[in-house]
Design a protein that fits this description.
Layout: H1 3-13, E1 17-21, H2 25-38, E2 42-46, H3 48-54, H4 56-70, E3 74-81, H5 84-92, E4 97-100, H6 107-121, E5 127-132, H7 149-159, E6 163-166, H8 183-192, E7 196-199, H9 207-215, E8 218-223, H10 225-240, H11 247-250, H12 255-269
Parallel strand pairs: 1-2, 1-8, 2-3, 3-4, 4-5, 5-6, 6-7, 7-8
Length: 275
Amino acid sequence: MTVKELLKQCQQNRTAVLATNFYNFETLTAVMQAAQKMQAPVLLQLTRSSIDYMGLRQAVGMGRRALADYGIEGWIHLDHGGSIELVERCLDAGFDSVMIDASERPFEENVAITRRVVELAHPYGVNVEAELGYVAKLGQTQGGGFTTPAEAARFVDQTGVDALAVAIGSAHGFYKEPPRLDIARLAQIHSATDVVLVLHGSSGIPHTMVQEAVANGIAKVNLATEIKDTFMRALKGVLLQSDEIDLRKVFPKAVAPVVEMLCEKYRMVGSCKAE
């Protein structure tokens, strides 16, 4: 199954795939253990900063090896690709899916850049995701710049993109105020175009609200901040209670809380076969 087929299947079944970022061996292990336990498909995400940290081929190699070792159906996705150059590198490295994020550019520039990525990626059989509207990134102010149904339909028609991250009230990173998703707007966007819709910034959104979004068209739910936060909180707790200097003994103790959190997220999106 390809990523395109997976996302379309989720869209038809009113479920979503949980797309999880990983940052090192331990967070990758947590994703694998949770997915194996829940019998869920895995969409591993890498951002430019993670690629710069681990190295492109090293990161892809880790992901592919983990999927094989755990016997899990899964794919590798570029999250928030900020340039065509990075997309090209990821296509050459064998990514199954790529995101080009030109959402902070004017509409026509976003269209042109996204259309170019679609032209590059589709001969590889690779899924292409883009973003339209204002989904606040780390350090940015939340609110405003929501995606409109008309612009979403026009954007998809002019780019040929496979999946679209929409701005309906979510934000990347921690929420300063309780998040509120505009489900009515989401439903209107879903009615205006049959493109696969993506929710970014799911960390911290109540599970019932995410489930309502899935019921109204979201077929891919991104999760990143809570993975980092859960791991680091657990690790800090271990370090405060131990003088151990062998990281091979310390780091694994921070994996279990991430696994537990991820299992709940797989239940939330409805993509698991277990239970």
